[in-house]
Amino acid sequence: MQSKATTVDQYLASLPEDRRAAISAVRDVILENLDANYAEGMQYGMIGYYVPHKVFPAGYHCAPKQPLPFASLASQKSHMAVYLMCVYGQPEQEKWFREAWAKTGKKLDMGKSCVRFKKLEDVALDVIGEAIRRVPAKAYIEHYESVIRPPAKKKAPGAAKKAPAAKKAPAAKKKPAAKKRA
C-alpha cells in the first residue's frame, strides 16, 4: 500500500508504533551502511534509497524523471518489507545473501528483491546491512548499465561483410475474381 507521505518523517509518523519501531531499526542499519552517493527520500510511496540525478543523470530507464532505485523500505498491509535491488538480477549477490541469511538461523521470506517480515526479530539486520554495504553506487550503476545497455558486440578484425540478401522474384499477379451474375 502506497503512502501519500512526502517525507520520511511523515511516513514514519503515519505508522503504528510497533511497525514504526521495526521500520526505524531497519532504516538505521541501511543508513549506517549506505554509500555516500546514494540518497534517502520518498519514492513510489515508500522510503527509498536511490542514486540521485546529480550522480546518475539518466535516472531510472522506466521513468527517467525518477532517480535510479537501489533499495526501499515499506509497511505493507500484511507485512513489512525491505526491497533490495542490489540483490535482484545479480545471481552472485543473491547467492551470497541467501547463504548469509541461512547462517543466522532466521527464516527468509523473499521474493525477487523483496524481503518480507512481520516483526523485527524476523530480520537478519547484519545481513541487510552487509548487502547494502557491498554495493557502492559506482558498482551499482556499472551493473545497471551493463544490463540495460549491453555493450555492442565488436566484429572480429578482418571479418567479411555480410552479403546482401538475394532479391525476391516479384509475386505472381492474381486474377480478379469473377463477377457474380444477378
Automatic annotation (TrEMBL):
Residues 157-169 have a biased composition (Low complexity). Residues 151-182 are annotated as: Disordered. Coiled coil: none annotated. Pfam families: DUF1801. Residues 19-134 form the YdhG-like domain. InterPro entries: YdhG-like. Residues 170-182 have a biased composition (Basic residues). This is YdhG-like domain-containing protein. It comes from Melittangium boletus DSM 14713. The lineage of its organism: Bacteria, Pseudomonadati, Myxococcota, Myxococcia, Myxococcales.
